Structures are given as C-alpha cells and as structure tokens.
C-alpha cells in the first residue's frame, strides 16, 4: 500500500531523522493511544496524527501530551484540537494511569533532563507497547556526563551523556523489564559547529541517539 503523508516543517535534522529512521519502527497508534512526554507545541502529535489519518481511514489517535511550558501547550491545543495537552512535570507529576499507552514518546527532552534512569523506568513500567526517545551523547570516548548551557532554551541545561554511563543505565532498566527489547537504535552526528552554536562551547563531539524499545 502506498500512502501520501504531508508533514508540516520536518525542518530540523532531528525531525528529518525521526521521520526516516524512527517512525518506521513505531507501531500504528491504534486504540491504545500515545503519550508524549515533553510534548512542547505538539510537533510529534502532528506527525503521528498524519500517519494515523493516512493509514487508519482518517482516524486520529488518542494523544496525551505533557509539558511545563504553558505557551507551547496553548499552541499545541490550538493546532491539534483532538489532542489532550496538560501542564505537568514529566519527572514526577503524572499519574500512573495517565502514562498507560500503546506508544510513549520522549522527543528532544531527555537531553535537558538531569536524570535518565527514573523517567525511563516509569516509561517502561506503564507503556503497554513501545517507547521511543532520544538523547545526546558524546562521541569522544568521555566517561563523564557533561552539563552545558543551552542557548536556545536558557532556562534549561544541555546534558551531554557519556556513552558508557548511558549504556549502563539502559542495561539496568532493560534488565528490570525483560519483556522489552531494543527494536531499533539510530544516531546522527552533531557537527562541532552546531554544538558550539547551541552551547557556546567549542570542539564538542556529540551525536543524538534514538532508541525504540518494544514489548515482545
Ligand atoms: C527541546 S523541547 C522538545 C519539545 C518537543 N518534544 C519537540 O520535539 O518538538 C523540550 C521540552 O521539554 C519540556 N520540559 C523540560 N523539562 C520538563 C519537565 N520536567 N516536565 C515537563 N516538560 C519538561 C520543555 O518545556 C520543552 O517544551
């Protein structure tokens, strides 16, 4: 079957990467719905809803987005009126039953959260199907996480994780959830110039890595 999906602004490298390398590994949204942690203005709600609309005869998914930023949430509500967008701290402010879904996304948000393990644990504990998320890690062999300024969102810091530490965390979480396995992983490299533009720090070697974890 061939479908034509029109997407608004797949502009950034990460969004293009998501559409080409991540989306094909995600389940159809279906009845179990989508939870989007750190949904911002709902860009990924637009993407997943277009996919749903094209593949499910016009049906839109049940979509629940959570974010702290009221302005972004207001844009999400106005652009995607079928979605449910709530103000909540995704690290500790969401009821467990609200986290239950067929697909849980956390896009471009782990890189500004200090802790990877706790939220990942909650995602795997409450998702009935698949989780997809991305974060930045350094590609210079560093064994330490680094906290950097983030010029585009000055109220947050950028967490550039060490690959080794991030792997340790992922392996620990997966060991507690043997029902999940890695369905796909993919990365794209940040140029040092782009990292410098984002953080003000020269010479950083970094990549953004996406993970799709699914239940058996
Ligand atoms: C870089 S934006 C990504 C937004 C969206 N996922 C996207 O890719 O377009 C990160 C988002 O995470 C939100 N955020 C950061 N920490 C959060 C927290 N503890 N609870 C809820 N939202 C948070 C920010 O407000 C921001 O909208």
Topology (SSEs and partners):
Blueprint: H1 13-22, E1 34-37, H2 43-55, E2 63-67, H3 70-79, E3 84-87, H4 96-99, E4 101-106, H5 117-126, E5 127-138, E6 146-149, E7 157-160, H6 163-176, E8 180-190, H7 192-199, E9 206-215
Parallel strand pairs: 1-2, 1-4, 2-3, 4-5
Antiparallel strand pairs: 5-9, 6-7, 8-9
The structure holds S-adenosylmethionine.
In short:
With 216 residues, the chain is α/β, with parallel strands linked by helices.
Averaged pLDDT = 92
| Uncertain regions spanning at least 5 consecutive residues | none
CATH topology of one domain: Rossmann fold
Assembly status: single chain
| Tally of individual helices | 7
Shape: globular
Percent helix: 25-40%
CATH level-four homologous superfamily name of one domain: Vaccinia Virus protein VP39
Query: What's the level 1 CATH class of one domain?
Result: Alpha Beta
Instruction: Report the β-strand fraction as a percent range.
Output: 25-35%
Q: First CA to last CA: what distance?
A: 26 Å
Helix and strand element order = HEHEHEHEHEEEHEHE
> What structural class is derived from the secondary structure elements?
alpha/beta
How would you write the strand order of the largest sheet?
A: 3-2-1-4-5-9-8
């Amino acid at each position: 079957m061939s479908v034509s999906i029109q997407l608004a602004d797949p502009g950034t490298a990460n969004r293009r990467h998501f559409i080409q390398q991540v989306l094909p590994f995600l389940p159809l949204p279906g009845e179990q719905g989508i939870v989007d942690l750190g949904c911002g203005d709902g860009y990924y709600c637009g993407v997943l809803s277009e996919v749903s609309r094209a593949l499910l005869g016009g049906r839109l998914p049940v979509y629940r987005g959570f974010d702290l930023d009221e302005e972004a949430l207001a844009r999400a509500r106005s652009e995607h009126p079928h979605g449910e967008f709530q103000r909540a701290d995704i690290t500790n402010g969401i009821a467990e039953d609200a986290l239950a879904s067929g697909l849980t996304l956390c896009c471009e948000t782990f890189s500004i959260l200090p802790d990877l393990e706790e939220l990942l644990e909650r995602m795997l504990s409450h998702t009935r199907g698949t989780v997809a998320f991305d974060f930045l890690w350094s590609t210079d062999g560093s064994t330490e996480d680094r906290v950097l300024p983030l010029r585009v969102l000055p109220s947050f810091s950028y967490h550039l994780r060490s690959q080794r530490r991030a792997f340790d965390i992922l392996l620990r979480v997966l060991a507690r959830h043997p029902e999940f396995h890695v369905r796909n992983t993919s990365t794209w490299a940040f140029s040092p110039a782009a990292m410098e533009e984002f953080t003000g720090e020269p010479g950083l070697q970094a990549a953004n890595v996406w993970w799709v974890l699914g239940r058996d």
